[in-house]
């Protein structure tokens, strides 16, 4: 099989890339935004698609269209958890699948973590799966930064380790790294230095031109050649490209990308008044719809006011009739009324208990049916919505929550009820209200505490969703 592909031409003569040599010597592509890096990578991938397995790390969604023309499988990282991405990486190596890891649905730091996890899984594959594969990393300066940025230090160490393994030690495992970057100065030197082949596109900053000229073996006064390159032209050098620097005009491609239109196009022909109306009509309503809901008011009303409110809620002509009171039903109604008050979860237990006693007296129950400890657990049940489940389910939930402390009982019951109803996770607002907080951080720490205690299992999805299961419920099923 011919191991060469035509990447472009120089003065009418085709310029080839030896794919077998490229697998052994790796490639670095550099060029400012708009220089044609993505076009170059697409040409290389299209021409070699039938020769070698291809794995593309795609932070901007530029290469997902390869799946329309070739056998590439698009993996949307936002739909998978960390463990699932690791398993995917292992299967990609085992089955020699060409894939595009699409990261565009994630925040930048999540993109970096997902890329590092996936690359590490490729690198750690069993020896019997070390088949040759091209690993193309676009925007490599994100994943192998030369200096610490705004990302967390542990994330930076993770991604640098993954990229260094790919470029330094990947060859023995069949992995041939192809990294593309906008600026050499932003790319970690130990990653860039491992490439033996170079395709340098247009760049204007002196520091990048000098470094590119050094890599190409040019004298520094020849660096101006890189500044004068046309869009889509690259200076190539290396054992897989050419033994001397050649200026390559990259050839055409068959697949497109979904990038925004970069050329000129006619503006819409709309009168100024109509355009102004399109921009401003219903603007207030749209902004209000997107605005976050106001945080719950934390200010606790005086105990006396809360007790009077409960008494007013429970009094009615029917209640004032001289009929025997069903204490169980009456207590449940008082607890339900108290739990339905949006301010209740943010009140201290003592204030809630006083309101509960006031509600009992208004119904003719003068002997307290619950002490403070019993009230806290019963109120937690009411707040968790256990009155909306059947008696058998209620008893099952209470049995698995028998050892849960009172202060976190309600959020645990919310999670357990959600799992019993077959939902992936409870509503965020419902869970926060049960815990008496409006802080996402406190809810996250509570979930971490439950998971450490073995009470729940949380499956985080990179796109931001989560699935929570309760092992005790599954065991009892």
UniProtKB/TrEMBL annotation:
Keyword tags: ATP-binding, Nucleotide-binding
Protein name: ATP-binding protein
Chain ranges of the AAA+ ATPase domain: 23-190
Species in which this protein is naturally found: Croceicoccus pelagius
Any matching Pfam family: DUF87
Keyword Metal-binding (UniProt): no
Organism lineage: Bacteria, Pseudomonadati, Pseudomonadota, Alphaproteobacteria, Sphingomonadales
Keyword Nucleotide-binding among UniProt keywords: yes
Stored InterPro entries: AAA+_ATPase (IPR003593), ATPase_Atu1862_pred (IPR014588), HerA-like (IPR008571), HerA_central (IPR002789), P-loop_NTPase (IPR027417)
Domain of life: Bacteria
Gene3D superfamilies from the UniProt entry: P-loop containing nucleotide triphosphate hydrolases
GO terms assigned for molecular function: ATP binding
